[in-house]
């Protein structure tokens, strides 16, 4: 009996997820499907998906279909990864009254007040990835389950470290934004070329499998912030930068899935620091961090020249990620808190 079969619980879960990335089939499978649904299916005897993409623009119909689905399926748990306000408080309250419900809130660092604070009371259980939001939940009369983003290998184990050959010296995988582009330009001034992949960059969006391959085949994988920049040089680089600095709700750095995806794939990670990162990866031993373009460039040069030290970090980070930071491990822990 393998570990996944051994850990399966005799429970029924209704997984209320989007099937496609941002409900758009052209963007490929969603994280909900690839990471949450596929791993829940390994943890419970019966997991039924309720894909809501087709009705995202017909919310009255969506409420009706979900309630009817729950009545027919009669689950032990209804698992949500909230996206927008696609489900009304009335719908969520009805479901909560008849079945245990759970919502995974992964962006509480920047949208607790505008989103989770309004939605969480309508669920039986709430999961947060932001330990600093726990007191806020408690003020609402809720004790959230603390979890974190994670990673999952999307294909077979990539192979030994180091690989036979690398394809890139430095790369970045993530969506384009003005701050990230500014950072890449600053590194270019330092003589460092960064190969960029993701929505908005010339190379475009890539598959989950291709993402893992790039992490593995890159000497230095950058993880660049998606939060508001406090670098005065960027803030004053243009009117839009000033406006974004004043208006953006993303005021604090956030631990994201990328922090775990890079080491799990066997890649070396050089990332901006996010509060609490050291609880998951040992800085200097399992991950390297920077706080400015100049410091980033300095570390890139250092780790390119010191292969033995770099590979030691890669192996340690990979071992830690495989043992603790997979979606299977995260979801298994959540279900254990619910069901013992």
At a glance:
With 340 residues, this protein is of the alpha/beta class. The chain contains 14 helices and eleven strands. Helix 2 (31-43) crosses helix 14 (327-339), helix 7 (178-189) crosses helix 12 (293-305) and helix 11 packs across helix 13 (307-324).
Kindly describe this structure.
This protein has 340 residues and is an alpha/beta fold. It folds into 2 domains: 3-150 and 327-339, Glycogen Phosphorylase B (Rossmann fold), CATH 3.40.50; 168-324, Rossmann fold (3-Layer(aba) Sandwich). It has helices spanning 3-6, 31-43, 59-73, 89-98, 108-119, 134-139, 178-189, 208-216, 232-235, 239-247, 258-264, 293-305, 307-324, 327-339, and strands at 9-17, 44-51, 77-80, 101-105, 125-128, 145-146, 168-173, 195-197, 218-223, 269-272, 288-290. The protein has a 6-stranded parallel β-sheet, sandwiched between helices. Strands 8-7-9-10-11 form a 5-stranded parallel β-sheet, with helices on both faces. Helix 2 (31-43) crosses helix 14 (327-339). The chain is globular and about 60 Å long. 36% of the residues are buried. The mean pLDDT is 92.
């Amino acid at each position: 009996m393998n570990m996944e079969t051994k850990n399966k619980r005799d429970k029924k879960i209704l997984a209320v997820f989007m099937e496609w990335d941002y409900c758009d089939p052209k963007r490929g499978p969603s994280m909900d499907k690839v990471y949450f649904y596929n791993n829940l299916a390994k943890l419970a005897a019966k997991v039924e998906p309720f894909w809501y993409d087709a009705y995202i623009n017909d919310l009255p119909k969506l409420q009706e279909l979900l309630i009817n689905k729950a009545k027919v399926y009669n689950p032990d748990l209804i698992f949500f990864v909230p996206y927008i306000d696609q489900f009304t408080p009335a719908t969520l309250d009805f479901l909560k009254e008849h079945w245990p419900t759970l919502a995974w809130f992964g962006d509480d660092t920047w949208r607790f007040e505008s989103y989770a604070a309004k939605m969480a009371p309508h669920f039986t259980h709430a999961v947060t990835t932001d330990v600093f939001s726990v007191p806020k939940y408690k003020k609402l009369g809720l004790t959230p389950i603390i979890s974190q983003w994670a990673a999952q290998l999307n294909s077979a184990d990539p192979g030994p470290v180091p690989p036979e050959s690398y394809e890139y010296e430095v790369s970045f995988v993530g969506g384009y934004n003005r701050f990230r582009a500014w950072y890449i330009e600053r590194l270019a001034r330092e003589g460092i070329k960064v190969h960029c992949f993701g929505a908005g960059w010339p190379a475009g969006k890539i598959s989950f499998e291709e993402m893992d391959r790039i992490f593995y085949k890159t000497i230095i994988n950058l993880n660049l912030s998606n939060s508001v920049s406090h670098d005065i040089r960027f803030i004053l680089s243009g009117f839009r930068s000033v406006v974004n600095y004043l208006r953006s709700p993303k005021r604090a750095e956030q631990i994201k899935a990328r922090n775990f995806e890079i080491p799990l794939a066997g890649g070396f990670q050089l990332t901006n620091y996010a509060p609490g990162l050291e609880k998951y990866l040992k800085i200097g031993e399992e991950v390297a961090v920077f706080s400015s373009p100049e410091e980033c460039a300095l570390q890139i040069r250092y780790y390119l020249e010191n292969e033995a030290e770099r590979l030691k970090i890669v192996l340690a980070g990979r071992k830690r990620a495989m043992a603790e930071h997979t979606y299977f491990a995260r979801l298994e822990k959540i279900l254990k808190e619910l069901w013992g």
